[in-house]
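Moderator note: this is an archived Q&A kept for reference. The question asked for a predicted structure of one protein chain; the sequence and the answer are reproduced below.
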Amino acid sequence: MDSSLSAEGPWLVVGLGNPGPDYAATRHNVGQMVLDELASRGRLTFKTHKTNSTVAEGRLTPGGPRFVLAKPNTFMNVSGGPVAQLLRFYSLDPSRLIVVQDELDIPFDTLKLKFGGGHGGHNGVRDVIAAVGSGEFTRVRVGVGRPPGSQAAADHVLKGFSAAERKTLPILVSDAADAVEQIAGDGLTAAQLRFHTAR
């Protein structure tokens, strides 16, 4: 690890997605929905940042961990550049990075939390690993489920949630935000014990 990089300092939480209103409510953008929830908890405001991202900084609770919440302005498949720039700008080691992502291989309304490993076929995570030069960061994987029938996965993630899913979506987003807070406050293992058990 580069001694100039801090293993302390704020947590950088990146919500993966695509920019613009056409994509805001799609499955691929659930990571950015989680960041909106986190920002609202801390009454934080997203602002344009020179790392080609929009960023909100601060604590979500008095005396709690400091967060940098960031949404890359790029499309999902080229998310890595802004993430690498953010780590450099804040002088953070990748171990302080939490990526919130959609995950096809997990059923809707389910969370899986992990540190390190490969990209699992997720092109946004693939690009982050390539740009950062390491997979040693935490992932909050938000289940959006596999597409029905013969629908292509690429089409599925760019569609909105069904009417039934939209009823549960706020709870899923809130749970994912809780997971981010618990990882930062209590550590990954404690968060996994809480969120990996079936509700």
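Archived answer notes: Helices lie at 30-41, 80-89, 123-132, 153-157, 163-186, 188-195.
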